[in-house]
Amino acid sequence: MKVARRVSELRGFLAEPRRVGQVIGVVPTMGALHEGHLSLVRAARAQSDLVVLTIFVNPLQFTATDDLASYPRNEAADLEVAEAEKVDVAFLPSVEQMYPEGAQMTVSTGRLGEIVEGAARPGHFDGVATVVAKLFNMTNPDFAFFGQKDAQQVAIVRRLVTDLSFGVDVVVCPTVRESDGLAMSSRNIYLSQSERARATVLWRALQRGRNLYRSRASIEQIEGAMAEVLAGEPGVTIDYAKAVDPATFGRPVGNGSALLAVAARVGSTRLIDNLPVDHEPADREGG
Ligand code: AMP
Question: pTM for the complete prediction?
Answer without folding.
Answer: 0.97
